[in-house]
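User: Teach me something about this protein's shape.
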Amino acid sequence: MQFSVVTFDAVGTLIELTRPPGTIYSEVAGEFGQDWDAGRVQQAFRRAWKETPPPADLAGPRPDDDRLWWRRLVVRTLAVAGYSLPEFDTYFERVYRRFEQPGIWRARAGANDTLQVLHGAGLRLGVLSNFDGRLHAVLRTLELAPYFEHVIVSSEVGANKPSPLIFQAALARFGVPAARMLHVGDDPDLDEKGAAALGITTFLVREPEHGLGRIPRTLDLPASPAPPSSSSAAHGWPGVGAGEA
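Assistant: First, the predicted structure itself:
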């Protein structure tokens, strides 16, 4: 087995939303006396996601943990949907924090079993994600955090995948050369191309034939139990399927 370190993308690979972002935005709006059409908000979210450029790469952590970027996304989402509310600042803070609370995320099918097999085999595990500091709380809530030696998120590094900077940060944290690291993700552009630029091998998750449960077999380890396929109601950040986050 040539690899000593395995890193995982988070959203769409290890974890997924239990319902679309537009539904969550609308639920929080209901706490402010608003009655929004969740489907309409979800469509607006998809458009806003595509139209909001990712935060710029920096030489270090982004000072606001990407909060300003998320605020711009929420502002754009509501503008596209045609909704507003007078208490926007309070609403945004509640929405922002809602995405780190229990019941919003769940582990994807096969995640726990695969992590258990890899960890038990002595592999060093990490997370490498275009997320922010809230991911730490999410992983703790889902009881996934103990598996990981390092959780590397873009807001804390100051670079988003596919930038080589975030992959270099992972190699530096683990203290291994690229040939010793396997990166597991679901996005050919963000995960595969970014890793390949540094000579890091990638395992692309493609359900059901190339899911998380196949990773131990790829590494010549005992296979983890075959999990049921992920529900079609699973959602990644854009809310159009876990694999598109």
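Now, about its shape. The beta strands are 5-8, 15-17, 105-107, 124-129, 150-153, 181-185, 201-204. Residues 67-81 form the longest helix (15 residues). If you'd like, I can walk through any region in more detail.
User: That's plenty for now, thanks!
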